Amino acid sequence: MEGVELMEKKKVVVMALHDELESAYPPLNVAVGAASSGADVILAFSRRGVNILDKRYVSVPSEDLEYLSNALNDFGVSSVHDLLGIAVEMGAQLYVVDMDVNDHFEFIHPAEQVPIKWLLNEAASADLFMHF
Amino acid sequence: MANKKFVYFVSLSSNVPYVLKKALKNAEEKNEVSIFFDLDGARVLDKRYVKIMERTHNMDLQKLMQKALDQGIKFFGCQMNVLIADGLELVEGAELSGVATFLETAYQADAVLSY
Asked: What residue in B sits closest to A8 (Cα-Cα)?
């Protein structure tokens, strides 16, 4: 696999800002896809997105998008927490932007708290930065 | 700012008209534009949904989408399995893709914009 070895390792920074189902899947899909193709992945959570990391999190779609939840369930799509677990297994590093975690929070996976400036600096040097 | 590569990632169908207008402007300025439609955003790639939108919201989405395709904007539908299971009638000119295609395109882009 000479080609693979020669390929430059990509750096991907993904930021989840919201916790609704339709906003939770895209960052995780991108993180899993990037990590599984060998990229270094930083998966950061801020604002309401941090709720995705809570053990008690249940993905609920926004109003008028309830059909998505049923469709994904009917089709047997992995849950948000399953995808998160896959991302972690694939080597994605989890971060929480500081000031966004309350005291009652129970992390499903360990996540390092970092300043937003650190994350934005990482994003500036990334091959891909996306926020959802 | 011309000859740049723009990638839009749209996961909400309500954002599609806005994204199409922005994408058209970029394409008219000779930039290369790709739009990836995911989750709820992907509904607009289903002809049945486009017809419903036109009827209920008096929105000529089809015309806007056709204009974009005519301008060379590429449409990709991501994770369309759910819609396929539901009998998807894919809009002509759109392609189905996975996250690998998205990443390949996004790595080469000058700007990746999510809506």
From this structure: B107
